Amino acid sequence: MTAEQIRHARDLLTRPENTVSSIARLLGVSRSTIYTYVPELATGPAVGQPTVRAELEAGS
């Protein structure tokens, strides 16, 4: 994935209506590619930590 595609995927993930599958289809890559290039999706939040989506929405 290009840097632009990664930024686009992260932006799309901030919107609750989007799924990893729909973003992968839109970008023409597999779900596993999304998880490879956006590794924070693969690890769940630690107890008491915000979700990836909440972090992305906050701009972290």
TrEMBL record:
InterPro entries referenced in this protein's UniProt entry, alphabetically: Homeodomain-like_sf, Resolvase_HTH_dom
Domain of life: Bacteria
Pfam families: HTH_7
CDD domains reported for this sequence: HTH_Hin_like
Residue ranges annotated for the Resolvase HTH domain, each copy included: 4-40
Protein name: Helix-turn-helix domain-containing protein
Taxonomic source organism: Nonomuraea indica
